[in-house]
Specification:
62% helix; 25 helices; D-Maltodextrin-Binding Protein, domain 2; globular; single chain; 5-stranded mixed sheet; 2 domains; mainly alpha
């Protein structure tokens, strides 16, 4: 049954891929835009179709008819599918015929790519286990689907959700968590194709295919596109397609092409706030390469239209388009200093950055020993090949655009955040430069350099592929039905047993009653809840909520009838809540011991932890607000 569901999901993804492409293809034809190659047109068409879908999803969210609207969007896409499928089939057939000219080595590389993609699809077909996804990527979309389109101040990171998160909402609204994860997987497949196309501008087909294979087995990539639950990979896809448009040589770069490039750039800027740095770099490229205001203006208009969704949403909710940033000036009444500092710390904004670590960061080699994980491991290949990349640079538009985007993005992200995983969108750009460097040493016949580089690349591929297989053992077993969903989640999902226990103990809660939960991983909770962590909740201010009266007032406003905590409350709010327990305002009604991970899952340190469920009583605090 599980394998059949995975196959059905795959068929659905192929349909949506074609439908997105048909929608974008129709738009390109209406704009009378021609690109260098048929593959470029297909990739850009897919990207434009996704932007159109995400824009419609924003309209559906504002309408508050999310499920009905999502099915309406499927119908909308089907119309374009019916209109354009014949022409699309012809393009795909012509591309397929080109495979006949591939050498044995190229066909072997294609086979390895297909095997790798198949493995990653099976991993993506397993239930969601990504930590951040359980906290906000998927949880925020689930709450919007269940409760309506509204600001979720108790999950601060929900305001960081970009427009590609709407594809998660789309999948959930259509009734399938697997489809929601599948959309992220599709983003990874599309990005790998864009990488191959970018690399082919400078490199041989063998080099382009091998670098694409390396991309797919890079730990941060296969984690990102399989079961991380984060849609950031779409930013890399939109960046790649925008660069393909800017690199057009066969046709004049008109204002219509500028609009298309802008729309694709909007797909980058709308994916995440850090995407604005990439959009800024692309804008510089437009000014530098074409030096015409008549092209820069339509580019900016397209970028605004293509990436406005999250900024418009946040403005509608808070009157601050980049909420929670600049909130102390634009919307101070909606945030707490404690949560803002916690959020800034989590995104690296509070860290000190020095120039000594800048170069390793730019070359994807800046790994922090205190926080090692798949989310930061890009491998050593860019660092090893960097000197050859410098030698291979030529004075051409593709090189200038690639280097400007890579350098400006990496430097701005380093000094604003310093988190290496935020470089994922430009990783394909760097790998395309690596492919160019490999082709350059082939032409120069530098035997020693070629041997060293190919040796490193083979070791990276072997290690990455073995790592992928090891990483995928449990999720693949769950995806094909060899392991039940519940067993798999108990073994791999953080706090899943705690969520099960809370769901069972508080199953009788009505829709008008909520539990204040002190858990980070919220996705699998099936009860009405409010996140209790003051570092994530803009409505809990430790500086102000230090008495029983203030907490009882909060409980009443939020309709909170129960509190769920672990061994301890967060330190910032522990004193008033502990006093409320000792004075009978919070009464213990259940204590359950569950297994959970201690620290990061990669450490596999499983411990038994208590879950305490307390009921809020009607006992009233003293007039001075202290508990007596």
């Amino acid at each position: 049954m599980a394998l059949a569901q995975a196959l059905l999901c795959l068929i659905s993804l192929v349909f949506f891929w074609f439908a997105f492409t048909c929608c974008g293809r129709w738009l390109l034809r209406r704009l009378a835009v021609r690109l260098n190659s048929s593959l470029d047109e297909l990739l850009v068409s897919t990207a434009l179709g996704i932007i159109c879908t995400e824009t419609l999803l924003l309209i559906v969210e504002f309408s508050q008819r999310i499920r009905l609207g999502s099915y309406g969007i499927v119908g909308f896409l089907f119309i374009f599918f019916a209109i354009e499928i014949r022409g699309l089939a012809g393009q795909v057939t012509n591309l397929g015929k080109q495979l006949a000219s591939f050498s044995k080595l190229e066909n072997s590389l294609l086979l390895f790519i297909a095997i790798t993609v198949a493995v990653e699809f099976l991993i993506a077909s397993a239930p969601l286990t990504g930590s951040d996804a359980q906290h906000y990527h998927f949880t925020a979309q689930k709450l919007i689907l269940e409760q309506g389109f509204h600001p979720i101040f108790s999950i601060a990171e929900s305001f960081l959700c970009g427009q590609h998160h709407s594809l998660i909402l789309f999948g959930l609204a259509l009734g399938s968590e697997r489809l929601a994860l599948g959309f992220i997987f599709l983003g990874g497949v599309l990005t790998s194709i864009v990488l191959a196309r970018l690399a082919a501008q400078w490199a041989s087909k063998e080099s382009a295919l091998f670098i694409t294979l390396l991309f797919l087995v890079t730990p941060v990539v296969f984690w990102q596109i399989s079961n991380s639950g984060s849609p950031d990979i779409f930013m890399a896809f939109f960046l790649g397609t925008a660069m393909l448009v800017l690199n057009q040589q066969l046709h004049p770069f008109t204002s219509r092409l500028a609009i298309v490039a802008g729309l694709l750039t909007g797909g980058v800027a709308g994916g995440k706030y850090s995407g604005c740095f990439i959009a800024f770099a692309l804008l510089i490229c437009v000014f530098w390469e074409f030096r015409r205001i008549s092209l820069a203006v339509p580019f900016l208009v397209g970028a605004a239209l293509g990436g406005i969704s999250p900024y418009l949403r946040n403005f509608a909710w808070t009157r601050n388009p980049i909420f929670p940033y600049l909130s102390q000036r634009l919307s101070p009444q909606l945030v707490t200093s404690y949560a803002l500092y916690s959020l800034a710390s989590a995104t690296g904004a509070t860290q000190q950055h020095n120039f000594r670590e800048l170069l390793p960061f730019v070359l994807f080699a800046h790994v922090k020993a205190s926080n090692v994980g798949l989310f930061d491991f890009f491998g050593p290949i860019v660092l090893v090949v960097a000197p050859i990349i410098v030698a291979a640079v030529t004075k051409t538009r593709p090189w200038r655009i690639a280097l400007v985007v890579w350098s400006i993005t990496a430097v701005t992200i380093y000094f604003s955040s310093g988190l290496l995983r935020f470089l994922l969108p430009i990783f394909p750009v760097a790998l395309a430069c690596v492919a160019a460097a490999i082709s350059w040493i082939n032409r120069k016949e530098w035997v020693m350099a070629k041997s060293v580089v190919l040796g490193v690349m083979f070791l990276v591929f072997a290690g990455g592929f073995v790592g992928l297989l090891v990483y995928g053992q449990k999720p693949i077993a769950a995806a094909v039905g060899l392991k039940s969903r519940e067993t798999y989640l108990r073994e791999t999902a953080q706090e899943f047993e705690a969520a099960e226990a809370v769901n069972s103990a508080l199953a009788s809660l009505s829709n008008h009653e909520k539990a204040l939960v002190f858990m980070r991983h919220l996705y699998y909770l099936q009860i009405p809840f409010v996140n209790g962590d003051p570092g994530n909740n803009f409505e809990i201010d430790p500086a102000r909520m230090n008495t029983a009266d203030s907490w009882m007032d909060y409980f009443n406003r939020q309709h909170i009838t129960h509190v769920v905590r672990g061994a301890q409350y967060p330190k910032a709010i522990a004193d008033p809540l502990s006093r409320m327990e000792s004075e009978g305002l919070l009464v213990l009604v259940n204590e359950i011991n569950v297994k959970s991970f201690s620290g990061m899952r990669i450490d596999k340190n499983v411990v038994t932890v208590p879950v305490f469920i307390l009921k809020v009583t009607n006992k009233v605090a003293g007039r001075d607000g202290a508990v007596h």
